[in-house]
Design a protein that fits this description.
The chain is of the alpha+beta class. The chain has a 5-stranded antiparallel beta sheet with strand order 1-2-3-4-5. About 5% of the residues have low confidence.
């Protein structure tokens, strides 16, 4: 089945895009990548004879692939022009979906520090205030005492 998928993918890639990369997926399918149009198409076996799952999606910034936006089961015995027409329709759906669905908006949400998720209060517990705890006050008093003793040892004797 892989050989048939690979041959079909090579033919489709030549019809659809001048610049493309064809490679094998982990699951036994074949991916056609069009970097210049930022889209990908994959052909995967479905378990039926001469049938494949055709999926299409976007290529994100950095070269990673987004999940498939459109998919359809196709008959591999159909000619390359028919399969190319189906691929173009799926790619058009992907392009329309990319324009219509913007990324998540940050409007109205508080800013968070990058890389560190905000802590959520545990259910059933009141949220702790951010005031200085008694342990912190004790440490501050000890530091102040040590600093005071050092300053007294330097200037407090009056023996100059």
């Amino acid at each position: 089945m892989y050989v048939q998928l690979r041959e079909t993918a090579d033919e489709l890639a030549r019809v659809l895009w001048r610049e493309h990369t064809v490679y094998r997926e982990r699951g036994g399918g074949v991916v056609i990548r069009g970097e210049h149009v930022r889209r990908w198409i994959s052909l995967a076996p479905t378990g039926g004879k001469d049938r494949a799952l055709l999926r299409a999606g976007r290529i994100l910034d950095g070269g990673t692939t987004a999940p498939a936006r459109s998919e359809v089961v196709v008959d591999l015995t159909a000619g390359t022009p028919e399969l190319a027409t189906i691929c173009r329709r799926l790619l058009a759906d992907v392009a329309a979906g990319a324009d219509a669905v913007p990324g998540p908006s940050r409007a109205g949400r508080p800013k968070e520090k990058a890389g560190k998720p905000r802590k959520q209060a545990k259910p059933g517990r009141p949220r702790r205030s951010r005031h200085t705890s008694p342990g912190s006050w004790f440490v501050l008093l000890c530091v102040a005492g040590v600093l005071g003793a050092w300053l007294y040892s330097l200037f407090g004797r009056g023996g100059y």
